[in-house]
Amino acid sequence: YFRTGLYPTGGFPYTLGREAEGTVVSTGSGNTFNLSTGDRVVWLATGAYAEYTAAPATHAIKIPDAVPETHAAAALLQGLTALTLIREAHHVQKGDWVLVHAAAGGVGLWLCQLLRAVGAKTIGTASTAEKIELAKKNGADHMIDYSKDDVVSKVKELTDGKGVVAVFDGVGKTTFDASMECLARKGSM
Questions:
Q1: 81 in Cβ contact with 30 (< 8 Å)
Q2: Does residue 161 come out as left (phi exceeding 0), alpha (psi in the -120 to 50 range) or beta?
Q3: I want to staple 164 with a disulfide (CB 3.0 to 4.6 A). Which of 8, 95, 99, 125 is the partner?
Q4: Cβ(147)–Cβ(127) under 8 Å?
Q5: What are phi and psi of 185, to 5 degrees?
């Protein structure tokens, strides 16, 4: 978005990049929020495409050892996206029926996990047995293979004809009409 000019840079020179992961090479004075030289961190700041970035400690988070290198920056942004969807786009409650398209994708897997954590009933879509199994392992209660099954009729069957209170659709054009048909009255998409 910065490259295309959709988001203004605020002036030049400008180093692109908003989220990144790396290793702390030095800390400044003041509160470092328990960050130390050598810590693996992920952060949301500016200038992430640079070889070295001065990131505020308040914007950096230690990466758990179990998270492989090169995964944390994507996971942070995808996780925040999923959290924003279930708490701000539509505040999902325990027992709510929710449809997640591309449930085995980056944001989709986060949605499945977070929806399970809040007690929602999650219906996911995917196109292969491997993706279906992955989404189920991450919290999807029901999965629909959209390459074989009619999504609308399966959702109506699972929800006793009521539909879902929210559809989180990261696909768009090809799923839009079906998503609208899956919504309960006053549902969110």
A1: no
A2: left
A3: 99
A4: yes
A5: -55, 130
89 to 84, 92, 122: CA distances (angstroms): 7, 9, 16
- Token couple for 34: 């328990």
Q: What is the tens place of the pLDDT at every residue in 112-157?
A: 999 999 999 999 999 999 999 999 999 999 999 999 999 999 999 9
d(CA 145, CA 127): 5
Residue type, 133: E
CA angle 20/25/31 to nearest 5° reads 85
The string of DSSP letters for 70-83 reads: T-HHHHHHHHHHHH
Please compute, for residue 46, the number of CA atoms within 13 A of its CA located in the half-sphere on the CB side: 7
Instruction: Give the long-range contacts of residues 74-78, CB within 8 A, separation 24 or more.
Output: 74/106, 75/42, 75/106, 75/110, 76/19, 76/42, 76/44, 77/19, 77/44, 78/106, 78/107, 78/110
Four-residue CA torsion sign, 78, 83, 88, 91: positive
What's this model's pTM, rounded to 2 decimal places?
0.84
Q: What are the φ and ψ backbone dihedral angles of 85, each rounded to 5 degrees?
A: -60, -45
